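Hi support team,

I submitted a single chain yesterday and got back a structure, but I'm not sure I'm reading the token output correctly. Could someone confirm the output below corresponds to the sequence I sent? I've pasted both exactly as they appear in my results page.

Thanks,
R.
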Amino acid sequence: MDALGLLQGKFIFKKLPNGNLDKTKVVCTLCNSEFVYCRSSSGLKYHLHAKHPLANLEDAGPCVAQGKSFCQTTMFECNRGKPISAALSSKLTNLLAQWIATSCRPISVVKDDGLELILQAATGDSSYKLPARRTIVRKIHDQHATEKTAKDEKLMEGT
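Hi R., thanks for writing in. Yes, this is the structure output for that exact sequence:
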């Protein structure tokens, strides 16, 4: 505990009516919520992260470090990463083709900027591009042929 209070002054001990401090209770200086304190700050840290996510200036991001007011973190800042592998790209293309075929989505969905943005955020690769329409059509045909062959073989086994 420092001179300012617990957790860089985010919590202070509750003052009793007689002016003394109650060392078993603390008050959040940000929202005045009262908590029981038993020499552990884990519950207090949880409160800070859940209710005041921007309270810690160290974690607030580049806007605060540059002296600017708080700004919203973008999806790409949260999910920075290396470009995805060829294997993952292929898997995404196959899953996308399967989703389009089984959900009766139009092939043109691969031109949707919002879907591309979602996949970029999910993969952490801001350079990810959706596959071309003809690639998806080819994948759907390949998946259909594979599925048809498997079902034809099963039917032949049954006779």
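A quick pointer for reading it: The chain has six helices and three strands. Let us know if anything else looks off.

Best,
Support desk
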